[in-house]
Give the backbone structure.
Amino acid sequence: MLTLPSHADAPDASPDYWTYPTIAADIAPALEGVRQAVGVSLGAAALCALLSTTPHALDRVVLMLPAALSKPRQAESADLVLEMSTAAEAGDRGRLRALVAAGAPAGLDTYVDERTDALLRLGPALHAVARQVPVPDPATLEQVDADVLVVAAMGDLLHPTETAEEVVGALPTARLVRFDSPAPMVTHRRELRALLTDFLGR
């Protein structure tokens, strides 16, 4: 597992780190000798950016909750990311938690708290990627020959299903699985684990 800067126990990133080409270049060495990869959210976009320049780098890829591909985020989604960025950079945990909770199913207080704490370190990242495009020319993905599984979350404003559909349309062998939840990694953990085990274990 590769942990990006400013995530978990990794050191904070430098202010100029948060561009998709930079992140893709950062993860490339970790994938040497590896033929399968899973990327979540920012990691999914970074894998797309990597595959756009090295289309044969992987044999099997899972892209979970991609937030953008060849077009900027929709205005409502970008505005929410920027709101979260402002709250995080101001250290306003209460405001940030309210924004996270608004998009989560009821009864997931622990998830909301953990997500809030993680995002508190990611203010600069959220601000930087709010309107960035990971793959400006989706035609660069046409040569990707990896089997690709794209996982979408219904009702997740940060990771719209329309983006997941665009990713599937851009990758020749991709297939889409939608979960009827804005937080399937919590609400559908067992089903998601079985899906990934089946896809990556074959």
Remarks:
- The first strand starts at residue 36 and ends at 40.
- The chain has a mean pLDDT of 93.
- The chain is about 45% helix and 10% strand.
